[in-house]
Amino acid sequence: MELLAFGNTGWGDELFYATLMTIAVSITAMLIGFSFAAIFTPLKISKNKLLNFVANSYTTVIRGVPELLVIYLFFFGGTGAVMFVASIFGYNEYIEINAFITGAFAIGIISGAYSTEVFRGAVQSIDKGQFEAAKVLGLSKFAQFFKIILPQVLRLAIPNLSNVWQITLKDTSLISVTGLVEIMRQSYIAAGSTRDPLFFYSFAAVLYLILTYLSMKLINRLEVRYSRGY
Amino acid sequence: MDIELMVTSFPKLLSAAVVTLKLLSVSLIIGLFIGLLFAILRINRNIFINKFAYGYSYVFRGTPLLVQIFIIYFGLGQIEYLRSTFLWVILKEPYWCAIIAFALNTGAYTSEILRSAFQTIKPGIIEAGKSLGLSNKIIFYKIQIPIAIRQSLPAYGNEIILMMKGTSLASTVTLMDLTGVAKYIISTTFKPIEVFIVAGGIYLFMTFIIHNVIKFLEKKYSFSN
Question: Which of A229, B49, B125, B160 is at a distance of 20 to 30 A from A175, taking alpha carbons?
Answer without folding.
Answer: B160
